[in-house]
Amino acid sequence: MKIAVLGLGNVGLVAAICLAEQGHEIIGVEISKQKIQLLNQGVLYIEETNLQKLFTKNRENITFTTELNSDTKVDCYIVCVGTPASHNGKVYLGQIKTTFENLVETFDKDDNSFIILRSTIPPGTIESVVKPLVKNKKIIYHPEFLREGSAVEDFMFPHLHVVGLENESDYQLVQPLLANCNNIKYTSYRAAEMLKYLNNSFHALKVSYVNEIASIASAYDVDVNELVDCFLADTKLNISTKYFRPGFSFGGPCLTKDVSALINLAQNKQVNVPLITSILASNEKHLFRVFSLIEKLNPSSILIFGVSFKEGSNDLRNSPVLDLINLIQKTPSYIPRKDIFVKDYEINESIANTNKIMCDGAITVEVDLVILGPLKLNNLDLKYIESHKGPILDLGYIEHGINDRKIIKAYESDL
Ligand SMILES: NC(=O)c1ccc[n+]([C@@H]2O[C@H](COP(=O)([O-])OP(=O)(O)OC[C@H]3O[C@@H](n4cnc5c(N)ncnc54)[C@H](O)[C@@H]3O)[C@@H](O)[C@H]2O)c1
Predict the structure, then answer these.
(1) How many Cβ atoms are within 10 Å of 25's Cβ, its own excluded?
(2) Is 254 a catalytic residue?
(3) Of residues 76, 181, 230, 254, which has the active-site annotation?
(4) Is this model's pTM higher than 0.90 or not?
(5) Cα angle, residue 16 at apex, residues 149 and 186 outer, rounded to 5°
(6) Which residues share a beta bridge with 164?
(7) Sign of CA dihedral 5, 55, 84, 245
(8) Ligand 1 centroid to 1 CA: how many Å?
(9) C-beta of 32 in contact with ligand 1 (< 6 A)
(10) Which pLDDT value is given to residue 362?
(11) How far is the CA of 9 from the centre of ligand 1 (A)?
């Protein structure tokens, strides 16, 4: 393919050279005259293992320019310009806007060339900023996951490609460029746009979290390496997909108790751990998020499926569903107590002031709001839900397989 790579920073320069190595003909476009001058002299201004070697080898297949002109025809434009954040975190999209404004001036609107955007951008940017500029050109959003220091290796042998598309069939355009990796996820623009913020904040969270843990551990003469090695050895619960589906607040007999104990251990040794200290507050915030969703729905009657702290257990200790019921009941002006119905395996005294529905048999009450908690639904429950006219709030404990546009998720912060 003949490809123009726009923006030759760490991402664009590595892309340009590696794509040349993969057999493509490359035009590197960079606004900085100084960078273009250096590149034309064969000098790289970034350090990356093996980059100089590949550059020297593929020099003949790369040309450099500060701007494209309308006579230049390419199959694909790959945009890699910067998206720096200002001091308050607001993403500056000026480089993106200028690049696309310039592209519109130069590309042939009627040819089949398409655009791949690799810069990190907030969700909605393609729809609100890019699309209005380029109109009919196909745009693919392909976030870059390379790490500086191993950028060549990461580019040449990626572990994952995520590709945001407007139409499913557009995958055919980008497929020839997804070399050396069969792990490809095609998705919507917005999920692909948001992904780098999820990835990078998660990486940052892990670093800060384990540093806080190590500080507490060392204050208690714990061998930190031993400790972390044991943690990492558990690939079923710790380093795994477990505990990573969004749903409702955590609860139960262990998590809250042990997080509290950990904070107390830190305090006893004057170890300041802001991240770990914020966990319970974050969990409580989520409970209130769901409560305020219910307030907005303003139901006069509610049926809740399941009140224990998780599916398959009848343990009510620290159950966030019970906390939610208590919150609702503590707002006397809001909902009469008698109108909360609860169905669970074990209905006991802890669920005071609710109407209890025994497990077997069809449910006959009609309610304004149904809440799906940690109870596996039987066929009669599913039938009931099918005939329910009002909204359904899913706390995310179980995959119920109910595909209904009325379903509201616990994490939705706005209705
Ligand atoms: N650096 C990384 O490790 C990394 C990894 C993955 C993703 N990203 C993302 O990729 C994007 C690029 O990152 P980077 O580190 O290469 O940024 P960078 O700031 O180092 O490079 C951007 C380049 O684009 C050039 N440029 C700006 N406007 C231009 C225009 N109109 N035409 C041509 N060139 C123009 C700049 O002069 C600069 O050389 C960012 O959104 C970044 O968040 C970076």
Answers:
(1) 15
(2) yes
(3) 254
(4) yes
(5) 85
(6) 141, 187
(7) positive
(8) 22
(9) yes
(10) 82
(11) 5
Q: What is the pLDDT of residues 117-144, one digit of tens each?
A: 999 999 999 999 999 999 889 999 999 9
**How far is the centre of ligand 1, averaged over its atoms, from the C-alpha of 4 (Å)?**
15
Ligand 1 atom closest to the Cα of residue 145 is 6
Model confidence pLDDT, tens digit, residues 348-358: 555 555 666 66
Q: Find the 12 Cα to ligand 1 centroid distance in Å.
A: 7
Which H or E run contains 278? helix 274-297
409 forms beta bridges with 394
Pick the closest to residue 385 from 403, 412, 398 (CA basis).
Answer: 403
Nearest 10 degrees: Cα torsion 64, 67, 69, 73? 50
- Determine whether the shortest distance from the Cβ of 12 to ligand 1 is under 6 A: yes
Sequence length of the chain is: 415
> Atom 38 of ligand 1 has which residue's CA nearest to it?
9
Q: Whose CA is nearest to atom 44 of ligand 1?
A: 11
In 3D, which of 355, 366, 362, 372 has the Cα closest to residue 409? 372
